[in-house]
């Protein structure tokens, strides 16, 4: 399924370095250009290997997520300054955001604002998104007010909702925190509000702070202490060195030397996956063990459609094994004998880790 996570932040915070680590791409870092970099992330999931250890299939296929490294923001982007319009239009096309913050000192790479202050940087970016969203809300509000004056009752409801959004944005609060019920969002769905998108924050720290962070990252955590926000600490420069090691044994030794259990980008990928409200189901057979991406809440026929549209169109039933049952019992036959292979119909909501075999007829 085509879902995209965008990497955003001020210019020069290490976005492109992080993008290269995530996607194994070789985009030019530090150029301050106005071109987005597109890539694909393989989502790490050790369950694939454990399933394959029992099935011994011909290949393993992980699931993926699309990622885009969006041009760096500068103050005034909300009014089209710098590459502002490019920056904001790229954000509009994403489903979730990874906001990279500079949390390291490096005199040879001056900060665009003249000093290192990640909390200030958060506020700059948030303000630029809010300014553009406020403009979008005001334009639609004007249209609905004209319709409401002509007697359109539905438009009057829309005006009330948009007035709440307008006041919320004017108070410098992002659209994602507007105090309205979810059904009210239908009035802004067509606006693709930038500050409504789910966001996580990545503190890009120096190598020595990779495991525990530093004063800058602590300031970010304190800033968000009253909010339910995910914050990750990653040393971008260190991660780029890890990504260059192709031999798994060399990579393991390197990680041990710096005190990490796994590359920080692996944690970031899994966090981005959750941020997109995604989960994984598996198919397993002699040809391949494969992970598939679906949105949480999707039914068995919808999940089947992710594999191929014919499977959704001709869906009959799904044979379902739970990952834990399959690993514990060791085979499909054992699951069947133990009553742990379930026959599910069209209303079954697929759960994370389900191993599915789709029966269909077209």
Rounded to the nearest angstrom, the radius of gyration is 23 Å
Strand content: 15-25%
DSSP strand count: 12
CATH class of the domain at 297-360: Alpha Beta
Helix content: 25-40%
Compressed to H and E, one letter per element, the order equals EHEHEEHEHHEHEHHHEEHHEHHEE
CATH architecture of the domain at 297-360: Roll
Distance between the termini: 22 Å
Average per-residue pLDDT, rounded, comes to: 90
| CATH-assigned fold name of the domain at 297-360 | Ubiquitin-like (UB roll)
Q: Flag low-confidence runs.
A: none
Overall description:
Helix 1 (15-23) packs parallel to helix 7 (236-243) and helix 4 runs antiparallel to helix 5. The strands form three sheets. A six-stranded mixed β-sheet has the order 2-4-1-5-6-7, with helices on both faces. A three-stranded mixed β-sheet has the order 3-9-8, sandwiched between helices. The chain has helices at residues 15-23, 46-55, 84-92, 118-149, 153-170, 215-223, 236-243, 248-258, 264-275, 300-307, 309-313, 323-329, 332-337; strands at residues 4-8, 37-42, 60-61, 64-69, 96-103, 199-205, 231-234, 278-284, 289-295, 315-321, 341-344, 355-360. The mean pLDDT is 90. The protein has 362 residues and is an alpha/beta fold. The chain is flat and about 65 Å long. It contains 13 helices and twelve strands. It has a domain at 297-360: Ubiquitin-like (UB roll).
């Amino acid at each position: 399924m085509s879902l995209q996570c965008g990497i955003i932040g001020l210019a020069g915070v290490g976005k492109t370095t992080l993008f290269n680590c995530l996607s194994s791409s070789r985009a030019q870092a530090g150029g301050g250009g106005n071109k987005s970099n597109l890539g694909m992330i393989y989502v790490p999931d050790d369950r694939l290997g454990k399933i394959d250890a029992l099935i011994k299939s011909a290949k393993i296929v992980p699931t993926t997520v699309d990622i885009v490294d969006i041009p760096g923001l500068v103050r005034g982007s909300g009014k089209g300054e710098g590459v502002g319009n490019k920056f904001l239009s790229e954000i509009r096309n994403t489903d979730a955001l990874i906001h990279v913050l500079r949390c390291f000192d490096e005199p040879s790479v001056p900060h665009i604002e003249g000093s290192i202050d990640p909390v200030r940087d958060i506020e700059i970016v948030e303000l630029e998104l809010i300014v553009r969203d406020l403009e979008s809300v005001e334009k639609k509000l004007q249209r609905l007010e004209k319709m409401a004056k002509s007697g359109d009752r539905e438009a009057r409801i829309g005006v009330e909702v948009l007035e709440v959004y307008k006041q919320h944005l004017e108070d410098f609060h992002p659209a994602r925190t507007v105090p309205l019920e979810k059904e009210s969002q239908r009035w802004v769905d067509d606006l693709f509000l930038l500050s409504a998108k789910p966001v996580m924050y990545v503190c890009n720290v120096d190598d020595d702070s990779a495991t525990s962070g530093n004063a800058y990252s602590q300031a970010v955590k304190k800033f968000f202490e009253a909010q339910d926000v995910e914050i990750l600490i990653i040393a971008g420069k260190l991660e780029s060195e890890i990504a260059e090691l192709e031999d798994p044994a060399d990579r393991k030794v390197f990680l041990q030397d710096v005190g990490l259990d796994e590359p920080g980008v692996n944690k970031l990928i899994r966090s981005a996956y959750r941020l997109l409200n995604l989960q994984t189901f598996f198919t397993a057979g002699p040809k391949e063990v494969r992970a598939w991406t679906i949105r949480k809440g999707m039914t068995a026929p919808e999940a089947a459609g992710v594999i191929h549209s014919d499977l959704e169109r001709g869906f009959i039933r799904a044979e379902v094994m739970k990952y834990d049952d399959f690993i514990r019992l060791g085979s499909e036959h054992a699951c069947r004998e133990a009553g742990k292979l379930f026959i599910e119909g069209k209303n079954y909501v697929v759960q994370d880790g389900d191993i599915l075999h789709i029966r269909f007829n077209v």
